[in-house]
Amino acid sequence: MSDDGREQTGNERVPSRQRRRFPGISSRAYEHPADRSALVALRKLSGFDTVFKALSGLLPERSLRLLFLSDSVRVSERQFKHLHDMLLDACYILDLEKVPPMYVNQDPQPNAMCIGLDEPIIVVTTGLVELLDEEEMRAVVGHEVGHALSGHAVYRTILLFLTTLALKVAWIPLGNLAIMAIVTALREWFRKSELSADRAGLLVGQDVKASMRGLMKIAGGNHLHEMNVDAFLEQAEEYEAGGDLRDSVLKILNVLPRSHPFATIRAAELKKWAESRDYQRIMDGHYPRRTEDKDTSVSDSFRESAASYADDMKTSKDPLMKLVTDLAGGAGGLGGRVRRGFDGFKSPAPPKDGPQDTPPRDEE
């Protein structure tokens, strides 16, 4: 029996333990501001649907569907029943009316994805199924259902197509550069969409510890007895604040080719959201509905996205982000830090005799 008293029947099977359900919830409730602004703009773009329907003929979507149907195991009442139950639960909690097909693919690498232009399909690897326990896997299934509800599958499929296309036209002068510019922009959105889907996974599982454990296992394997959540989160803090300007540049170069944020960063971002007022309001039943999506303002969404990026920069402990903030704010002492070179952007030690207005003189 669910929290609203409904029986377990057909595709409306309720969760295996009592969890809150969110009737009519809009994906805007859990989307990261940068993800949401991009999606709102695309949804409002005149002719967008027509263009992508035409483009769909060029994409290997039908081939992918046939590939998974022929060479993977489709989740159902008769195959991977526990995953089938989780999928129905996730769709019920997020009120996704049409349950997407789900496949288990033989691959030792732990991974999951939601792709498709006309209809999303969810694929999880055997490596992931074998790695995670029930509650951790529930968060992953919720994560993928969140992608489906947000409409991410369309853009993720396009990114896969463009990445493949970039390899094929690498020999054409400037052709690869043009496509890679689009791919790089899409990857930045893709990484933010992963943060959104992590939040959806938490709304489905409603167990932040399970979500954290899953991210830890993805990073370090099935050795929970050797790992600690607090220590794992401290890694994210050290990664964010450590090093100098050279390390900041290396971080950017490391993340640019990635489709997903680093596991420690995802864990830190999810913990911050789980402790936020936004999450608590959703759990209390106060969230935007899909019926209101058509009235969403593109400009408001862009403002929220810009404010989010500005806040991230302002609160960031990364040396490069601090430099950008200093340049924007005209902070005193910047010249001295630049003269001292990269080492001048290391996090300074707390002053012994109160704050200093000017940096110490350089040694000759």
Topology diagram in text:
Elements: H1 33-44, H2 48-55, H3 61-71, E1 73-74, H4 81-93, E2 102-105, E3 112-115, E4 121-125, H5 126-131, H6 134-150, H7 152-168, H8 175-205, H9 208-220, H10 229-241, H11 245-255, H12 263-274, H13 277-283, H14 298-315, H15 319-329, H16 334-339
Parallel strand pairs: 2-4
Antiparallel strand pairs: 1-2, 3-4
Give the key terms:
disordered N terminus, four-stranded mixed beta sheet, single chain, 16 helices, 364 residues, mainly alpha, globular
Structure report:
The protein has 364 residues and is mainly α. It has helices at 33-44, 48-55, 61-71, 81-93, 126-131, 134-150, 152-168, 175-205, 208-220, 229-241, 245-255, 263-274, 277-283, 298-315, 319-329, 334-339, and strands spanning 73-74, 102-105, 112-115, 121-125. A hairpin with a 5-residue loop joins strand 3 (112-115) and strand 4. Helix 1 (33-44) packs antiparallel against helix 14, helix 8 crosses helix 12 (263-274) and helix 10 packs across helix 12. The protein starts with 32 loop residues before the first helix and ends in a 25-residue tail after the last helix.
Outline:
Helix content is 57%, strand content 4%.
* Euclidean distance between termini CA atoms: 76 Å
The residue-averaged pLDDT reads 76
Assign an overall shape.
globular
Helix segment tally = 16
- What's the Cα radius of gyration? 23 Å
Along the chain, the helix and strand elements come as: HHHEHEEEHHHHHHHHHHHH
SS elements, strand count: 4
Residue share in helix: 55-70%
User: How does the helix and strand content classify structurally?
Assistant: mainly alpha
